[in-house]
Amino acid sequence: MTATRATAGDNLRHDNGSWRLMLLVSVPALVAACLTIDGLLRLLPADMWWRALVAADFTDPRQLLYRHAFLPRVAISLLAGAALGLAGTILQQVLRNPLAEPTTVGTNAGASVALTIATLYAPWMLESGREWIAIAGGAATTLAVFGLARGRSFSPIAIIIAGLVISLTCSSASALLMAANREYSAELFIWQSGSLVQNGNATVLKLAPWLLLSAGAAFLLSRQLRLLDLSDESAASLGASPISTRLSGLGIAVALSGIVVAAVGVIGFLALAAPALVKLAGARTLRQRMIWASLAGAVLLWFTDRLVQILPFASEIPAGTATAFLGAPLLFLLLPRMRITPDRDRAMSPVARRRNGWAWLVPGLVVTAVAVWAALAMGRGSGGWHWAAWGELVELLPLRAPRVAVALSAGAMLAVAGTMMQRMTGNPMAAPEVLGISGGAALGVLLLFVSLSTFNRPALLAAGLMGAVVSLLLISPTGNRNALAPDRLLLAGVAVATMASAFSAVVLAGGDPRLDTLIAWLSGSTYTATVNDAFTAALTAILLLAIVPLTARWLEILPLGEAASLCLGLGLTRVRLVLLALISVPTAVATLVIGPLSFVGLMAPHMARMLGFQRARPQLFASAILGGLILLCADWAGRMLIFPWQIPAGLLAALVGGPYFLVLLWKRRQ
């Protein structure tokens, strides 16, 4: 009787799971079908659909659009979505990681930057097909991620952090390449954002065989992949080779994601959403997840693509951008469900102890003064390099001085904020940019940008500050759930930054005439710096440097942990609120005057610590000097490298900061 009841209960749960899975796939499929039919009827009468499909009249532009644009776009959305759903399922099974997908492990970014480099500098490589270049680039970055995570036993957090930092670095490199090749920037931007726009059947005919072959290989490998649910020892005792199985599964997943990037660009987070949703809906076995995730991915991308075509924007939002709005909130929902072995952060760079760290601040100030003078006086013109004499310098000051002041002040503020965050959280990888505070400030500014036709600097500052505070409120509950706060804070911050990036792409697709200024600002630029901006940034930086020494005792105690802090009489709630306020305000101001893209808040505290500034107070001032120098030099180099064009300072700083972050990860694994 008991066995009968158990069997009946299992069957009931299976039936409920099947119904949930069917609803998950059928509801968006039905809506997408309705939107597709509506679009077809707007394009062509129903009685002409079949005739136009088998024998299109080339003199009728409607039939040409139907045959060579509309139908291939529907087909490519289904094929790409299915490929990404299957790739995400395989990666999550291979890595035993519910957050693994081609975007979070760096595969998509590697494929994208490889194709960008080939398109700009070696177009002859594309003659044999884009797929091989994309697969090679994706494989290279994926292997780099695993190399970085190996020292921490391939823990989920280590893999995701390494993958996301590699993705950010590759994105910065792509943006720099596009800035240096402006004539191709528009086309590359649309492709990198994941555009499903088609011009014929060629892409569909290329993608379909790849998908069929990869899917067949995946299902043939499914038995070995299923054994990865066990420990490596148990799987080996059953005759499986865990290493070979993982490599084979990774090869299939990289191939699937690479061919999708080659076909339509980067479609972010769909490979995370589809497997997660089908698992929540009741898909238990690996085969079930592979089948239903492929169906869900196809339907979700089809639905998303149809939806973006009816939104009231001046230009169409790329499908890859739209899927990011789904993936980032889902990342928040999945973080509490992750089961991760605690791992203590270790020092990631050698530190030379110095008894008198203050003495080294004087040479730092001298170097800063020399750098300011060089940035003001040295430049490049039609006649080559030129050092301005005093009379010329007076004429150039109104143009160069605001930019120098803004870069120096913003760098100092971000560096001090990064130092406080690293000491407050005990996390040597914390920074305003990494934890999403800069992204939240940017999101606040963007919301104001689309809400009002006119606004002033105080309104922008208030919007940026509100965005920074809201982002802190979003990530703080996630980070305080357990002892893994530092790592979870990083992932929650990445989710905030992703939402800000996706929203900025939506704004860019809106066709606003003010977009030129917005694009420069989003890249981290001082192009539009004014005297008022310089005054605001400098005043905020001076006030910050005057206040933060008062928090030195807190910053010395907090890295010891909550228990030690409480024993030493520290009121953690009050202290954290004060520190968060001191972090949010300068971050918002720095983001307002120079944009959200920079790794200065990460690099400067580590550089100060490597120079021997270990105590809180000298480290704060040393970080401020180094941060100001980094952004000042980046701004000057951005003005000079491709003169008469300019590269945003934040973009150059991010391109340097990404590899630096990876070096820290490498040292951490040892």
From TrEMBL:
A family per Pfam: FecCD
Record keywords: Cell membrane, Membrane, Transmembrane, Transmembrane helix, Transport
Main location: membrane
GO molecular function terms attached to this record: transmembrane transporter activity
Example GO biological process: siderophore-iron import into cell
A single Gene Ontology CC term: plasma membrane
UniProt-annotated location(s): Cell membrane
Record field: transmembrane: 21-41, 70-91, 103-126, 132-149, 156-179, 252-278, 290-311, 317-336, 357-376, 404-422, 434-453, 459-477, 489-511, 531-551, 620-637, 643-666
Membrane topology: Multi-pass membrane protein
Top-rank lineage group of the source organism: Bacteria
InterPro entries: ABC_BtuC-like (IPR037294), ABC_transptr_permease_BtuC (IPR000522)
Entry similarity comment: Belongs to the binding-protein-dependent transport system permease family. FecCD subfamily.
Protein name, per record: Iron complex transport system permease protein
Organism listed in the record: Neomesorhizobium albiziae
